[in-house]
Specification:
binds iron/sulfur cluster, three-stranded antiparallel sheet, 197 residues, mainly alpha
Length: 197
């Protein structure tokens, strides 16, 4: 029971942190005419592997309905920051990419740092590593349970087969999409990333 009460307390603390960071971010980016959701869409287009940067995957990553994701992206398209490009393998889909102006805007907002980062910087080395490991475990458990979409590079994903094609320009393999991957592709974020236990 004590553990349950403490878990509820930690959950509340994490919620307060999330709300605080979002409020801080909203204030920081509104001068550039963005909402936090639009900044997340810019980040998605900048960092996601091109063949999975679809509007549907954006909706999964943001935890919103597809129509809501389209509503977030449309103003960025209208401002010439995001473009819808043909999918490299699937003619029925489009993918989101940043235009040169979009890359400039992303570079500016990417530099923003929250007060939370400064607070984390004040933790003692042992405390920081323990928190990093514990939060990583919690996020991975929620992702495996399907309660959270963690878009991340291939390393640490259950579907990743590093070095499966030795000597090839695409030395790695993804067992989920059954495709060879180059170093640069494997280093980009993928919304299908499934953390190993
Ligand atoms: S599912 Fe996993 S291994 Fe496959 S591309 Fe995505 S992150 Fe990489």
């Amino acid at each position: 029971m004590d553990r349950e009460r403490r878990a509820a307390g930690v959950t509340m603390a994490l919620l307060r942190l999330a709300r605080g960071v979002e409020a801080e971010e909203r204030e920081a980016v509104q001068g550039a005419g963005f909402t936090p959701a639009q900044v997340a869409a810019l980040r998605f287009a900048a960092r996601t592997r091109p063949d999975v940067a679809t509007p549907g995957q954006l909706a999964r990553v943001l935890g919103v309905r597809p129509a809501t994701a389209v509503g977030i992206v449309n103003p960025l398209v209208a401002r010439g920051l995001v473009a819808r490009a043909p999918h490299p393998f699937d003619g029925r889909q489009s993918v989101l990419t940043l235009t040169p102006a979009g890359w400039q805007a992303w570079r500016r907002v990417e530099a923003w740092r929250s007060g939370l980062e400064a607070a984390l910087g004040e933790l003692a080395p042992g405390e920081f590593e323990a928190l990093e490991a514990a939060l990583g475990k919690v996020v991975a458990a929620l992702a495996r349970a399907g309660r959270l979409v963690v878009s991340a590079p291939c390393a640490g994903c259950v579907h990743f087969r590093p070095g499966a094609h030795p000597g090839s320009a695409q030395p790695h393999h993804c067992a989920l999409i059954d495709r060879a991957l180059g170093e640069a592709e494997a280093a980009m974020e993928c919304p299908e990333h499934t953390p190993a236990a």
